[in-house]
Design a protein that fits this description.
The chain is an alpha+beta fold and 677 residues long. The chain contains 30 helices and 14 strands.
């Protein structure tokens, strides 16, 4: 960027205050209630640094930030990607805009950020991290701010002090952080964050526990241990009937369990030792950060789709983008929505639009079914859908506010009386800000989704099954004389009201589960595909919405990672840790699982085990299936992976040990039955 270009961009950035204020006012008019947002304008390098830091200015020293910075820089340099902004979940929220953005981009970013801040403030999954509620000045109970920037800054300072402590090796601190970060997603994200209180170690109070550890205390030679106290002898000491296992139920918060019961492995002493104070504190700090960032991972599709939806409403429908900015904005928005892979922006936006359309359609259908002569059986025969579309169109004054300013009635619930008076007094340009003259009800009717050109066939596309279901649960008994009377009472706010209800309670998994219907899959051309053993390539397998839903939900359940739980902290009565993979049809990468167990060993201090299930194919069955162009049936086999500090072992276990790990009602394999040999 030349010096002149940069000066131009800086002038644009300096003039953003007015646009920020108006975007906030418009968001409020549209029914959003975001956190207050502090906007910062940063240069290219600062933006890359903030992205690497997860949207915050201060984080603890660690090599991961440098790696992420380098990745972001190369992505921009070689792949053509560009970061327009980053915003964090805090009250007030902090949004960082890149100074190289054009004015159109800056406006788009501001509207996008306002919607993100609304999602942060109102989605229940983000509230789970807050430390309870606090009383407002108006007497209402409000969610307490996560105070994230302060929290992460304190964590950074604490870790930096430990690294600078002359009694602690900096390399030891970095290695310990590496071990914990390897498990940062192994928390129970469905439970509110609560700090772990160090309690008594159950295994220390048990007789006969950790015989191997007791032998270490005797300082016996390796030869005596091999000849007298070998593995066979140790196994004979196990007493499964009398031994005590904990936890009582499988525990999903692996980090919390290690914080409560873990020990460090001392390489010199070759045994487990108690965590030092700094290790305990660091583990809890990093666990707390994992809980803070979890809601963002759990709601990526919802959050980005929500922000894209309201950005589009503000930038295009309410002309927040000027006439000379619209084409550039549309070009950049199309690139964002059209990028390849699993795109949370386009998927989220499409589902939110579907939520709005289906709710508005239901309202219309309910009223039509209460019209004389209309039933769910003859609905498509007697309803004139062209007339329905005409009746739903907003009046001319609502679509062209400046041209009808003198005709507006201040007593109309769709008109903001104060805004109308200000507009008539010339206090603002009504051509630029027509929304200031309208209320929420007026804006809902002005932007009613079913009259958009792309949605004009949505009402008539309703199926008989849905019509019957709606008719069955109609509780209103009053009847309309004709269709015109029925449509005159349409609730234009219903779609947006329903969207806010969904925003408040759902995460990505429940969002997909609730709204990814067959109608949505068909209209958006979704399908599933599978790798086939017979041909050695990938083939389309299904367009059924249940199959598509299962595949998508797999990528979002537990952040798209395997679900691992703690089954036993006293496995085989020897203080070994037993983890279990809750198998859903997708196998673990055994090599990667082994690498992770090595990290867990450093936080448990004693041998660690992992139970899982793998699919094995018989070579003969594969060959036969290929000749028949069919798929071979795999055999599920239980495996136990163990790391004891010296090496990794993988052995086949009896099926009874792993049978409880299999998902009973979920199968992510969508191959049709006729493909199977």
């Amino acid at each position: 960027m030349s010096t002149d270009d940069r000066l131009t961009k800086q002038r644009i950035a300096a003039d953003l205050e007015r646009h920020v204020e108006e975007a906030s006012n418009l968001a409020e008019k549209l029914g959003l209630s975001p956190y207050p947002v502090n906007y910062w304008v940063v240069d290219y390098d600062e933006m890359n640094e903030l992205i690497a830091y997860g949207g915050f200015q201060r984080r603890y020293p660690h090599w991961r930030w440098g790696m992420q910075y380098d990745r972001q820089q190369k992505q921009t340099q070689f792949l053509g990607g560009k970061a327009f902004e980053i915003v964090n979940n805090d009250d007030p929220a902090h949004a960082f805009l890149q100074e190289s953005n054009t004015l159109a981009d800056q406006k788009a970013v501001i509207t996008h950020v306002e919607a993100h801040a609304d999602f942060f403030a109102n989605n229940e999954w983000f509230r789970m991290f807050a430390d309870g509620t606090t009383g407002g000045t108006d007497g209402e109970r409000r969610v307490r701010s996560p105070e994230a920037a302060e929290m992460l800054s304190r964590h950074a300072e604490t870790i930096r002090e430990y690294m600078q402590d002359p009694d602690i090796e900096r390399a030891d601190v970095e290695r310990f952080i590496d071990h914990v970060l390897c498990l940062e997603d192994n928390i129970d994200q469905h439970e509110p964050y609560a700090p772990v209180e160090t309690g008594p170690e159950e295994f220390e109070e048990l007789e006969g526990v950790a015989v191997a550890d007791q032998l270490d205390e005797l300082d016996l030679s390796d030869e005596v241990k091999r000849q007298v106290f070998d593995d066979e002898w140790l196994d004979a000491q196990d007493d499964d009937d009398d031994g005590i296992s904990f936890p009582a139920e499988p525990e999903k918060d692996v980090l919390g369990f290690l914080r409560r019961h873990g020990m460090a492995y001392d390489d010199e002493a070759e045994k487990a030792t108690e965590f030092t104070d700094w290790q305990r504190e660091l583990l809890e700090l990093l666990r707390r950060e994992a809980y803070y960032f979890a809601p963002q991972k759990m709601t990526k599709v919802m959050n980005e789709g929500w922000a894209s939806y309201w950005e589009s409403v503000m930038m295009t429908d309410e002309n927040f983008a000027g006439d000379d900015e619209f084409v550039l904005y549309a070009d950049h928005m199309s690139k964002v929505l059209g990028s390849g892979g699993l795109n949370p922006y386009s998927l989220g936006l499409a589902i939110w639009q579907y939520v709005e359309n289906t709710e508005n359609r239901r309202d219309v259908i309910e009223r039509l079914l209460r019209t004389e002569g209309v039933t769910w059986r003859n609905f498509h025969d007697v309803v004139d859908f062209t007339a329905v579309q005409t009746a739903l169109e907003p009046p001319a004054w609502l679509t062209d506010v400046p041209g009808h300013l003198d005709d507006l009635d201040p007593d109309d619930p769709r008109v903001d009386a104060d805004g109308l008076a200000a507009a008539r007094a010339g206090e603002f340009d009504v051509g630029t800000y027509p929304w200031k003259v309208l209320t929420y009800e007026g804006l809902c009717e002005r932007h009613y989704s079913l009259v958009r050109p792309q949605n004009r066939g949505f009402v008539s596309a309703v199926g008989q099954e849905e019509l019957e279901r709606v008719s069955r649960y109609l509780f209103e008994q009053d009847r309309y004389a004709d269709i015109e009377a029925a449509l005159a009472e349409v609730d234009y706010t219903r779609g947006w009201d329903r969207m806010r209800e969904v925003r408040e309670s759902h995460n990505d998994v429940t969002f997909l589960d609730a709204f990814l219907t067959q109608e949505f899959v068909d209209s958006n051309d979704y399908f599933t595909y599978e790798y086939t053993q017979a041909s050695g390539d990938y083939r389309v397998t299904s367009t059924d919405h249940e199959d598509v839903k299962k595949k998508l939900m797999l990528q979002f359940t537990n952040f798209g990672k395997p679900t691992i739980v703690v089954e036993d902290g006293n496995y085989r009565n020897r203080n070994e840790l037993l983890l279990a993979h809750q198998y859903n049809g997708v196998m673990l990468d055994i090599a990667q699982a082994g690498d992770v167990l090595e990290r867990v060993f450093e936080l448990w201090g004693r041998p660690v085990n992992l139970l899982t299930i793998v699919k094995e194919f018989d070579d003969h069955d594969v060959e036969v299936a290929k000749r028949r162009d069919r798929e071979p049936e795999p055999e599920p086999v239980g495996k136990r992976i163990r790391y004891d500090g010296d090496g990794l072992s993988v052995e086949t276990t009896d099926w009874s040990e792993v049978e409880h790990l299999t998902a009973t009602d979920i199968d992510y394999d969508t191959k049709p039955d006729e493909w199977l040999a």
